[in-house]
Amino acid sequence: MTDCVLCAAPDAAPVTLAPGTDVAVLCPVCTAALAGDITPGPRWRCLGDAIWSEDAATQIAAWRLLKALPGEGWAAELLESVYLNPEVLARAEAGETALPGVEHRDSNGVLLAPGDTVTLIKDLPVKGSSMVAKRGTAVRGIRLVRDNPDQIEGRVNGQQIVILCQFTRKS
């Protein structure tokens, strides 16, 4: 019996990580999550250890799953603090799957991609906070909300927030 490299669950099997030739030994739950069937929750805290593995395939799988957890603040913070070899990061990004038909567009209809920089076109009050994200603020390194084409995530004044695409302009 082989254990999953991400969560240490038994009965894992080798899985090839598209589009390359990287192979990770994953359990059925982690394999399904990589295919897009992921539910946020405490189960994924194991990725905090897996992302620091010396094995490139394990790093790629953990990175992709962390990116697929849009509402988890701990996952976003972990992604910001982790360093992946640029070649490994490129392979991880190459296989990042978006949901079919989900496109994120700014207020001018320009297609947005992960990592883009956008500028706010309106003062936006941040829910649950007294902060107001001011018009003209540049939001660098955005993340796309996988299942909602109207929302992106980014850091404004050190706080991770969800932003509606209609209030942004690609820089």
From TrEMBL:
It comes from the Bacteria. Residues 104-170 form the Protein YjdM C-terminal domain. Pfam families: YjdM. This is PhnA protein.
